[in-house]
Design goal:
Layout: H1 34-49, H2 60-63, E1 70-76, E2 80-86, H3 88-94, H4 112-124, E3 128-137, E4 141-151, E5 159-172, E6 184-194, E7 206-207, H5 210-220, H6 227-231
Parallel strand pairs: 6-7
Antiparallel strand pairs: 1-2, 1-5, 3-4, 3-6, 4-5
């Protein structure tokens, strides 16, 4: 793990003055994957407001380049990260709607303390977060599920988070069956934090080169499932790249 670079600490309760746009010059402007698009959209808003955006600063206009792959969640320490809005493409690839789900119910018991520290760092420093999990759907499909988490200004009882998802490395495990059950999110392969203008916290979490992550996802090409996976899912929510 890389050691965290020192930076000014700032609570998401205030719009402090961050250093200048650390991502705008690193992520290609023509990148199309949802993670790159959210990073650039968030950066534009962060620079415009001079600190951590409010929920109302991040709407359809800001998210138009990634609609369907976005999510909004609420972090309530120490063990609650509830999805309040899940994009239609996310629900499509997962085969179920995850709006209203507390993801701590899906994490392995021995990893919950790590996740609690992770979301706490995102909210309290503030910084961005990135995870990769091997998600299994219906026991027949597996793919790498990349997520980023970006803090929004604190509400009285929780911290809102806006995020985006990309999937890579689809693998067929068995002949297609029905989808619609709860996907298995337990295989965590990477978790870390990245700078959104305020540095990153010390404390042992991996420091992520998020521009390199976005570039790697871009290089992997459009999100794809195989024909069997498409046939067992309804058309609703299907990404344009899969039509």
């Amino acid at each position: 793990m890389e050691s965290a670079r020192d930076g000014p600490r700032l609570s998401v309760r205030a719009h402090g003055r961050p250093h200048e746009a650390p991502l705008q010059n690193e992520i290609p402007a023509n990148a199309r994957n949802a993670i790159a698009c959210l990073l650039m959209a968030y950066e534009r808003v962060r620079v415009a407001v001079g600190g951590v955006p409010r929920r109302e600063d991040v709407g359809l206009e800001q998210l138009k380049d990634l609609l369907g792959w976005e999510f909004f969640a609420e972090w309530l320490a120490p063990h609650s990260i509830v999805v309040r809005l899940s994009g239609a493409h996310i629900d499509y690839v997962l085969g179920s709607n995850v709006t209203g789900v507390n993801f701590f119910d899906k994490y392995r018991a021995d990893q919950r303390a790590l996740y609690s520290r992770f979301y706490g760092a995102i909210a309290d420093h503030p910084c961005g977060g990135y995870t990769v999990r091997g998600v299994v759907v219906g026991g027949t499909e597996r793919f790498q599920y990349h997520s980023i988490y970006l803090p929004l200004a604190t509400r009285p009882n929780y911290v809102p988070i806006v995020g985006a998802v990309a999937i890579t490395d689809f693998t067929r495990l068995a002949p297609a069956g029905k989808v619609g059950g709860a996907p298995d999110f337990q295989a965590l392969s990477r978790l870390g934090v990245f700078d959104i203008g305020f540095g990153v916290p010390a404390g042992g979490l991996e420091r992520i080169d998020i521009a390199a992550v976005a570039a790697g996802i871009e290089a992997a090409g459009d999100t794809t499932l195989d024909q069997e996976a498409l046939e067992v899912r309804p058309l609703i929510g299907r990404p344009r790249s899969m039509r």
